[in-house]
Amino acid sequence: xxxxxxxxxxxxxxxxxxxxxxxxxxxxxxxxxxxxxxxxxxxxxxxxxxxxxxxxxxxxxxxxxxxxxxxxxxxxxxxxxxxxxxxxxxxxxxxxxxxxxxxxxxxxxxxxxxxxxxxxxxxxxxxxxxxxxxxxxxxxxxxxxxxxxxxxxxxxxxxxxxxxxxxxxxxxxxxxxxxxxxxxxxxxxxxxxxxxxxxxxxxxxxxxxxxxxxxxxxxxxxxxxxxxxxxxxxxxxxxxxxxxxxxxxxxxxxxxxxxxxxxxxxxxxxxxxxxxxxxxxxxxxxxxxxxxxxxxxxxxxxxxxxxxxxxxxxxxxxxxxxxxxxxxxxxxxxxxxxxxxxxxxxxxxxxxxxxxxxxxxxxxxxxxxxxxxxxxxxxxxxxxxxxxxxxxxxxxxxxxxxxxxxxxxxxxxxxxxxxxxxxxxxxxxxxxxxxxxxxxxxxxxxxxxxxxxxxxxxxxxxxxxxxxxxxxxxxxxxxxxxxxxxxxxxxxxxxxxxxxxxxxxxxxxxxxxxxxxxxxxxxxxxxxxxxxxxxxxxxxxxxxxxxxxxxxxxxxxxxxxxxxxxxxxxxxxxxxxxxxxxxxxxxxxxxxxxxxxxxxxxxxxxxxxxxxxxxxxxxxxxxxxxxxxxxxxxxxxxxxxxxxxxxxxxxxxxxxxxxxxxxxxxxxxxxxxxxxxxxxxxxx
Length: 684
Fold this sequence. Notes:
33% of the residues lie in helices and 24% in strands. It is of the alpha+beta class. Strand 18 (442-446) and strand 19 (452-454) form a beta hairpin. Residues 588-647 form the PASTA domain.
């Protein structure tokens, strides 16, 4: 073969190899550009761009009407780029300059601004004045960036629901924690281009990536109904509760639910705390006792026993039962609260009288299996699923070890341990026609543009009793309020259904003598319930019908009026005849409260006395700065009027915590002046 041909073949082969190489190279470049281009560009930018994070504003938390309960306010943060600081060689001098401005030791600042990290926060939440001074210094590697701080404009209101956020704006408790992903938003940044030596390039490219504000979480809570509940708790915790005689409970809670949907309209606990200063609060005050604490419910639990007995047709309300004063089970006598018993009575009267032996008879007729079935169906011994961390399960007696005596005590609300939210959810099922609803706190999630991202949907858990059984029990519980032990919650012109409860407190395996958990649960209107409410008062030497019923009465009346629920023309204006041995004071006529604002104390007391009212005072001074109820309010005659005193009416020294909006004034009402009654039994 000629040398010429050989040369041509070699050139052709070489050309083929180069062509193949170029094709492979082009294919590889195309693959890299198309599939990995974005990642490689990001890595390149990361190597010579440095970003200063810009925190997003956390979304608001609002009540169901859009009133702001938690918001973010603008603040600023001082930051450092340690590489620049080290490059300047002035770290010690800069730390000494910043120390008096930031109120931190110079050595701490120096250690932070010279760390081996891309970015360090030197001081968060500095005032605008300090931030301006830092910027004016023009220190290399030191700058400020916009930040935000959580603010709770209503102080303690709904603190246990809202929770609080930490210094880095992360949710730590309550809705702030459970809805962290919706509230926190997406951070932005300010990008600046640097050279390989870490020095900013002159006239370098800057990029601003705007942060995205978090969504608004709108709660089911109604600010006004929450205020009514918290007002009554404040009275209790300051010894001003009706019939409390100055006694202060260890704790108390008031829960209000819309029974047909499971929406919580109020969830208040005391003692409470200010989420703006949560670090200063005693940890025990931050505990949400309505969700996390269990107690023996006492006679309020008889609602559940009665519901099961009616559903299983184990009793007829017209059927007679003889109460001899005690019910004997396994050789043990479980006493009725009334000495000597109630004698012959129908099961309707058993409920009105809260007769222990009568309810024990219902439990025995149900039997252990049936009773435990309804315990589980009503949600006891398990979480309700309400959107709060740390919800307690409650404690049920071990069915395998339970005896007939245990069944007897469980039937009247002893032995088992429940949470307030469990009990209110169960009673709401009785009120709404027999369906257990999941209690809910979040109504909807709203984007910054105002679009509803996640709407509210009620969640039915299960049907427990029939519509007929529910209707029958509503009538029974209405009779309890009209004719029985719940008469202290009677509201003229409104149909109210309810049940009192008193249970001795358990400690070290036994009951504490003379210290009770007093409670009352009610719903109204009884025929078409709009509200279900539970009040639990822990650690008082009084019975539920004496101290808890008036609280429920006041909150219920204020809430019904606020919601525009008009009195029923067919509802009774006076309660029925009291049971023998339990005479209640008559319901008094309505009277108009005169305004005594700005008057000297002596003159104010004279005017109120002439109008037939009694007075209580709070604060120091001789001038009336405020009064509860307010002037022109319609309350019962002979009620107590609370006067807030100060030295100078033009400079108030005491401002009621609920006085934050004019529209609240008309809604705030108090029914006071009830007389205490003498009772000896539990079960009341």
